[in-house]
Amino acid sequence: MTIDATMVGRSYTAAESYQVGREKIREFAAAIGDPNPAYTGDDAVAPPTFAFMLGSRALEQLLNDEELGLRLDRIVHGAQKFSYTRPIKAGDDIAATATITTVRKAGDVEVIMYETALTTVDGDPIATSTSTISHNRGES
Amino acid sequence: MIEVGTELPPLTVTFRREDLVRYAGASGDFNPIHWSDRMAGALGLPGVIAHGMLTMASAVRVVTDWIPDPADLLEYGVRFTKPVVVPDDDKGVNVTFSAKVDKVADGRAEIDITAVAGEEKVLGRARAVVRVQ
């Protein structure tokens, strides 16, 4: 029930692909308050940070790995980066795999970096998301 | 023509509790530090904080509002250096974003973004790379 450097390389693939819909893009754009016309209509592309949401099912699997023993309410997001091969579009069917790339410990705090590959269901790259999270295992 | 030193038009957004609820619902991120003062306090935070991803989404608007097509964004990264505390009132918190072109080479422009809430910078090393002609 802990996390250490031996967990580097563990991979978690979302059980189901994510089908990107026009209305979900519209809802997300509204939630971030972004009226950019590129995010509406039949040819809608998704706002850049929509990519983070596509990795959430893979992240869920990582959080559910009992050997790691992580708790969502003890996690703070430290850093985030995206690299885009192409924009995410309405109609895309996207697979996500999260891989732990770095683990550092400082007392009760564990700093975990993981990389999420977003691809088409056929494996063509779309974007890569790199996340750094801090998990506090201390008593509270 | 994009040149080094070009300043992009700044943007100020307001986050209220309502905006955090809407973002939680749209993104599926229901971490209680974004809606419960009690749970935020248990993690040592001064109160409910905005989703870092909401701040990140707002910050890149300075870039995507400026380039003709948001699909020309190639890379975007930030560090969440200070939490953005969102008070439980009608006024909320203002965050102001500004950006400046730092480098142009090989059909790419690198843009540094600054995010300030109150007097504090809330993002570190916020940088976007866009495709340019």
Report on this structure.
The complex is a heterodimer of chains A (140) and B (133). With 140 residues, chain A is of the alpha+beta class. Chain A has a single domain (5-136), classed as Thiol Ester Dehydrase, Chain A, CATH 3.10.129. Helix content of chain A is 16%, strand content 38%. Chain A has three helices and six strands; from the N terminus they run ββαααββββ. Chain A has helices at 22-31, 50-54, 56-63; strands at residues 11-13, 18-19, 75-84, 93-106, 109-120, 125-136. In chain A, strands 1, 2, 3, 4, 5 and 6 form a six-stranded antiparallel sheet that branches. The longest helix of chain A is centred in the N-terminal third of the chain and has 10 residues, at 22-31. The radius of gyration of chain A is 16 Å and the shape is elongated. Chain A starts with 10 loop residues before the first strand and ends with a strand. Chain B is of the alpha+beta class and 133 residues long. Chain B has helices at residues 17-27, 37-42, 52-59, 61-64; strands at 7-15, 73-80, 93-105, 108-117, 120-121, 123-131. In chain B, strands 1, 2, 3, 4, 5 and 6 form a six-stranded antiparallel sheet that branches. Chain B is elongated and about 50 Å long. Strand 3 of chain A pairs antiparallel with strand 2 of chain B.
